[in-house]
């Protein structure tokens, strides 16, 4: 009942959950070794920014536009093509539908292979 | 199955939302809250009835309901050639339809609860609720019907109400643009579907799925009809490269409607599977059609994932991942068709159907979270957000569950179905499995980006006063998250019962025909 | 030295307040395999919030004064401060220059001075060890 | 050959409709193209129902001669009603679009792209 049999393997979420809890406890135990003797409410809780004062919160947050920039830039050959394909013109939406229909005709009907 | 109430269950499931749909404008003249209440009660009743219907289907087998004469002895057409054709429209609910019915009704109910606060500031709420109920009717009709033309009618009901709802925020040009694009493209698809129906009708004088499947001669015209049907339904379910309306519509619709649109794409996917498995059944060429589905699936996965990586608009991003998720289902079902007869074919089909359920839940949850962010901050772009986890604890938790599920991390439901998909695909072709797993990693990357840029990071001064979502929005998210965790922890609860039955029902063309012809 | 072993490793944060890099190179030399300070558990860390000891090189220029103060404030208690090199002790060749706030102990209290221009790595390691002893004594409450 | 002429017309009309939808930039013309396809499909249904010499299937005064099958007519009526609804819906949306964009050029109405 608890085990999902996928034909070539099994998946038992409860066992996984048990291990997850076990390892969480271990991780939390290890985390307990961290030092907590700094004084709260003083500069000792401040973020270290190379000795400079922390900038405004708006400047610190890494916005979504900056995330994965390098990845998309290095693969821009692919991504730019994809981006250009999404023109947003209603004609192109129809165009893709017609193209797919035509391809389906060619693939399915011309060899006579669709039905047997 | 004997008492009157049980017999008329399918009619009630269609009739209650339909009746409520035209009741809502009247009630909203009196009281806005009362109208919302009536809508929720109507959908709750529908949900309970759907569960009851599904219970009957899973215990007693396929459920048949005739609008019109129940058998040939009643009101029937006597043709000169000696045929006796009972005049009726049949609803045939097998295990697969019941599963889709449960998905539809639960998402509609949650969407209606969610809308309580979400659309409260709009003047045109009465129309909103009417259209929402009509959309529900359309989806129910599509998944329950055993009649091709009837399916076309419900498809159009679904598209019209859906397009109107996508364009609900009429003060914004972009949402009307999205509505128009959705409308044009889905009408075009529906026209091709009607064309295919005409082709089939012209040959066999039949519209009934089961009767058509029995009579089918598999001529060239049938192949053309198959192509038109596959094209139309693949487009309606948002398979690449015909997916472009999906992010538009999902991105611009109100979040509760995005939730409904997820269900509507899956109703189209259901129609696609129904046509391929039940109408054409064993006579399709497994290699051609199977690989067609696999290519649709791969394209959808890759295009959806790569486009989602570039998005900054949260709801468009989720829309593109929804395309990718549809790709997973098509991939699994394509493998099931292409490997028809081998040992893992059934497993791939089960995995695909299991993923339909899980995708509806997790993409739905993510849309609801996106809606909460929009409702509380007014920001559509991820670049304007940050540090929301400090103020929205519950929402953050629900988003994390949705993230884990959509990326296929254990122990959520998404992992269970994706594991099944990977393993069955791997047996068919390892390269496909590798692409699927890579795309899943991309999916994780995409949602980690969302999680980081919206929820993590320092508390932004502009968003310091953002409050947690109101209860009417938290409750649907909580229900979805709870169901996802339960399915994740006890996958067999639904897999070995509902999903396996649905897969068998989908494969069992003979059983479907026998239920309809034999029961007549 | 009163005790056989130290309670735990010593994490050092190195801050350069206008040094000519001579002392810095010697600090790096102390970490190389020849001297291998890390075998004693002495380790340079990237943030003063992780550090037990501050290691300051160079005279304090105007630009660096408030930053040095902030870094000192950010180091958790108990902490010790080492001043490495003549410049930090007295200003060295930059003595009485117009852009100096002064030697390090004008800004923050210094516990250990390591003279030299630059000091040898052995001297630096010995200074660290002295600072370490002081730190442990402070922790025990035995430091007067 | 003459019997197949309606089907030929249907094919031509669907082709024309698709051509209109593909190569016209004006939104109203795109909708007109869609309407042409809708009418083509309706014509197809009606052409299927045609039977030489048959009368309308009205049972009350049915003569002994053969009657045409009533179902396609019912289907066509339904399809026409649906087509009218979709066309009305699209035209009203186009009206709203004109209010926001001040143009009907499909190449300019693309705030949603990429």
Structure notes:
The complex is a heterotetramer of chains A (116), B (520), C (144) and D (114). Chain A is mainly α and 116 residues long. In chain A, 51% of the residues lie in helices and 3% in strands. In chain A, strands 1-2 form a two-stranded antiparallel ribbon. In chain B, the strands form two sheets. Chain B has a two-stranded antiparallel sheet with strand order 1-4. A two-stranded antiparallel sheet of chain B has the order 2-3. With 520 residues, chain B is mainly α. Chain C has one domain: Rossmann fold, CATH 3.40.50. In chain C, helix 1 packs across helix 4 (121-140). Chain D has a single domain (2-51, 67-101), classed as Helix Hairpins, CATH 1.10.287. The mean pLDDT of chain D is 87. Chains A and B meet through helix 1, helix 2, helix 4 and helix 5 of A and helix 7, helix 9, helix 12, helix 16 and helix 17 of B.
Summarize the structure.
The complex is a heterotetramer of chains A (116), B (520), C (144) and D (114). Chain B has 520 residues and is mainly α.
| Rg on CA atoms of chain B, Å | 22 Å
Order of helices and strands of chain B: HHHEEEEHHHHHHHHHHHHHHHHH
Largest interface: A-B, 53 and 76 residues
Give the CA-based shape of chain D.
elongated
- Strand order within the widest beta sheet of chain B: 1-4
Count the beta strands of chain B: 4
CATH first level of chain D: Mainly Alpha
Terminal Cα span of chain D:
48 Å
- The CATH topology of chain D, please? Helix Hairpins
- Beta-strand level of the residues of chain B, as a percent range? under 5%
Key features of this structure:
A: 116 residues; mainly alpha; two-stranded antiparallel ribbon; 5 helices; 3% strand; B: mainly alpha; 4 strands
């Amino acid at each position: 009942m608890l085990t999902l049999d996928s034909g070539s393997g099994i998946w038992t979420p409860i066992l996984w959950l048990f291990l997850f809890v076990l390892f969480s406890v271990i991780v939390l135990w290890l985390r307990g070794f961290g030092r907590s003797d700094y004084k709260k409410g003083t500069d000792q809780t401040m973020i270290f920014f190379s000795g400079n004062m922390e900038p405004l919160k708006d400047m610190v947050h890494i916005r979504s536009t900056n995330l994965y920039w390098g990845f998309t830039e290095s693969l821009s050959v692919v991504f730019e093509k994809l981006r250009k394909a999404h023109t947003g013109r209603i004609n192109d939406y129809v165009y893709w539908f017609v193209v797919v229909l035509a391809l389906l005709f060619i693939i399915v009907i011309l060899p006579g292979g669709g039905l047997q | 199955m004997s008492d009157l109430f049980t017999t008329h269950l399918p009619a009630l499931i269609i009739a209650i939302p339909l009746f409520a749909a035209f009741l809502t404008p009247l009630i909203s003249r009196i009281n806005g809250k009362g109208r919302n209440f009536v809508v929720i009660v109507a959908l709750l009743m529908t949900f309970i009835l759907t569960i009851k219907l599904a219970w009957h289907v899973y215990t007693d087998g396929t459920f048949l309901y005739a609008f019109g004469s129940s058998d040939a002895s009643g009101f029937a057409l006597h043709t000169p050639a000696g045929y006796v054709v009972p005049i009726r429209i049949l609803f045939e609910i097998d295990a697969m339809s019941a599963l889709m019915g449960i998905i539809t009704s639960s998402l509609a109910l949650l969407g209606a609860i969610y809308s309580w606060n979400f659309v409260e500031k709009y003047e045109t709420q009465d129309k909103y609720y009417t259209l929402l109920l009509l959309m529900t009717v359309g989806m129910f009709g599509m998944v329950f019907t055993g009649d091709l033309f009837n399916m076309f009618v419900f498809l159009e009901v679904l598209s019209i109400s859906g397009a109107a709802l996508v364009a609900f925020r009429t003060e914004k040009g972009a949402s009307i643009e999205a509505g128009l694009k959705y409308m044009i493209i889905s009408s075009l698809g529906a026209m091709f579907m009607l064309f295919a129906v005409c082709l089939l009708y012209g040959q066999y004088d039949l519209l009934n799925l089961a009767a058509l499947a029995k009579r089918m001669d598999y001529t060239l015209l049938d192949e053309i009809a198959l192509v038109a049907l596959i094209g139309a339904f693949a487009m309606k379910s948002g398979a690449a490269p015909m997916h472009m309306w999906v992010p538009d519509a999902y991105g611009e619709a109100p979040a509760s409607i995005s939730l409904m649109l997820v269900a509507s794409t899956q109703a189209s996917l259901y129609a696609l599977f129904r046509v391929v498995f039940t109408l054409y059944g064993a006579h399709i060429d497994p290699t051609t059609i199977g690989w067609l589905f696999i290519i649709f699936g791969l394209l959808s996965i890759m295009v959806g994932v790569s486009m989602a990586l570039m998005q900054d608009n949260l709801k468009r991003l989720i829309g593109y991942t929804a395309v990718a998720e549809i790709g997973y289902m098509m991939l699994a079902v394509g493998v099931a068709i292409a490997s028809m007869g081998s040992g893992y074919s059934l497993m791939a089909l089960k995995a695909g159907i299991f993923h339909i359920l899980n995708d509806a839940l997790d993409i739905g949850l993510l849309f609801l979270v996106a809606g909460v962010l929009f409702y509380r901050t007014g920001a559509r772009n991820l670049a304007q957000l940050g540090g929301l986890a400090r103020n929205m604890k519950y929402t953050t938790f629900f988003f994390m569950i949705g993230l884990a599920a959509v990326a296929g991390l254990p122990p959520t439901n998404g992992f269970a179905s994706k594991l099944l998909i990977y393993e069955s695909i791997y047996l068919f072709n390892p390269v496909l499995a590798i692409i699927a797993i890579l795309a899943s990693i991309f999916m994780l990357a995409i949602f980690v980006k969302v999680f980081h840029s919206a929820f993590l990071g320092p508390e932004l001064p502009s968003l310091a006063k953002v409050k947690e979502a109101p209860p009417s929005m938290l409750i649907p998210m909580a229900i979805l998250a709870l169901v996802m965790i339960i399915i994740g922890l006890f996958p067999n609860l639904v897999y070995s019962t509902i999903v396996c039955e649905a897969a068998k029902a989908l494969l069992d063309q003979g059983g479907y025909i026998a239920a309809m012809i034999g029961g007549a | 030295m009163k005790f056989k072993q130290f309670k735990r490793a010593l994490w050092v944060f190195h801050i350069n307040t206008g040094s000519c890099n001579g002392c810095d190179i010697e600090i790096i030399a102390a970490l190389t395999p020849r001297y291998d300070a890390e075998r004693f558990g002495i380790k340079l860390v990237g943030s003063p919030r992780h550090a037990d000891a501050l290691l300051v090189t160079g005279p304090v220029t105007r630009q660096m004064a408030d930053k040095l103060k902030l870094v000192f404030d950010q180091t958790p208690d108990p902490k010790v401060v080492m001043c490495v090199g003549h410049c930090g002790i007295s200003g060295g060749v930059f003595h009485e220059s117009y852009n100096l706030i002064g030697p390090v102990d004008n800004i923050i209290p210094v516990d250990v001075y390591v003279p030299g221009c630059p000091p040898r790595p052995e001297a630096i390691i010995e200074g660290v060890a002295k600072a370490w002893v002081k730190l442990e004594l402070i922790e025990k409450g035995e430091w007067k | 050959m003459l019997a197949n002429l309606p089907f030929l017309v249907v094919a031509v009309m669907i082709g024309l409709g698709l051509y209109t939808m593909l190569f016209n930039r004006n939104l109203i013309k795109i909708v007109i193209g869609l309407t042409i396809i809708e009418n083509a499909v309706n014509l197809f249904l009606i052409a299927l129902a045609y039977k030489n010499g048959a009368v309308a299937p009205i049972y009350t005064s049915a003569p002994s001669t053969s009657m045409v099958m009533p179902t396609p007519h019912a289907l066509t009526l339904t399809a026409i009603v649906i087509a009218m609804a979709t066309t009305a819906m699209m035209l009203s949306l186009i009206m709203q679009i004109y209010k926001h964009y001040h143009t009907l050029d499909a190449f300019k109405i693309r705030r949603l792209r990429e």
